[in-house]
Automatic annotation (TrEMBL):
Region (Disordered): 220-247
Record field: compositional bias (Basic and acidic residues): 236-247
Domain of life: Eukaryota
Name under which the protein is recorded: DUF7745 domain-containing protein
Any Pfam family: DUF7745
Top-level taxonomy: Eukaryota, Viridiplantae, Streptophyta, Embryophyta, Tracheophyta
Organism of origin: Mucuna pruriens (Velvet bean)
Boundaries of every DUF7745 domain copy: 2-141
Length: 247
């Protein structure tokens, strides 16, 4: 029934692809209701009336046209509001790369996931994986936030190629995706680099031992000098007392 389950994408693979560890952040999980449009208004710094005019519903899915977000970014760049610009840009990319649904449209599900990551620092790995299953399954009647298609599997190379193509289309600087076929691959490090780091750590440990030895020796010398100084003071005092008695 699920003969090729080992070819299915896994959370571990998506953690590696996205560079987001589930041990560091709590995952975003759909809670039964999307975030309110008031939250989106705050995030994008627009009026409720303006956003209400721009919102669209396609195929029974509500969302924001990407063209509107692009115009919003153009305006924000002119006025120099770079913080809000980054929010709008992040939302636009969220609807293109990790959670694509319609080509020119960012739907409410993607908006809700982005808001949770932006406001509550959630990890989107789980929902991105679920969205991959949904899109590959091709069940048009299933809603992404309710039912995920788990009947079709695909090789990791297919997933990797699909994500890479989406990244290349918009020319992101981090469009080089880590390979998910190499199980023993360590991101950003080769075996030579690991060996070099181990050697450096060994040298640091030797230096620490040498420094401890020097510190102990210096401490002994200080104690010895203190004792010598006390003896000299006692001797000088004894000599003074002896001279006083002779007088």
């Amino acid at each position: 029934m699920f003969q090729y389950f080992q070819l299915a994408p896994t959370l571990e693979e998506y953690e590696r692809i996205l560079g987001l560890s589930l041990t560091e952040k709590q995952p975003y999980l759909y809670q039964g209701n999307y975030s309110s449009w008031e939250n989106v208004v705050t995030m994008l710094k627009v009026s409720e009336s303006e956003l209400a005019k721009k919102r669209l519903r396609r195929n029974d899915v509500e969302g924001i046209p990407r063209a509107y977000l692009e115009k919003r970014m153009e305006y924000l760049s002119k006025v120099g509001d770079w913080e809000t610009f980054a929010n709008v840009l992040g939302l636009s990319l969220f609807g293109i790369v990790p959670l694509p649904r319609l080509d020119d449209y960012v739907d409410h599900a993607a908006i809700d996931a982005f808001y949770a990551c932006w406001e509550k620092n959630k990890n989107p790995v789980v929902v991105v994986l679920a969205n991959t299953y949904y899109n590959k399954h091709g069940d048009k009647s299933a809603r992404r936030d309710v039912k995920y298609g788990l009947g079709v599997t695909m090789p990791p190379s297919v997933i990797e190629t699909g994500l890479k193509n989406q990244l290349d289309q918009i020319g992101l600087p981090f469009s080089q995706i880590l390979s998910i076929a190499e199980k023993d691959h360590v991101p950003g490090l080769c075996s030579d680099k690991v060996t070099q780091l181990k050697e450096t750590l060994a040298e640091i440990e030797e230096e620490k031992i040498d420094l401890k030895r020097r510190l102990a020796k210096a401490h002994e010398e200080i104690e010895r000098e203190k004792k010598t100084s006390k003896l000299r003071q006692k001797k000088a005092k004894w000599e003074e007392e002896s001279k006083a008695k002779m007088k």
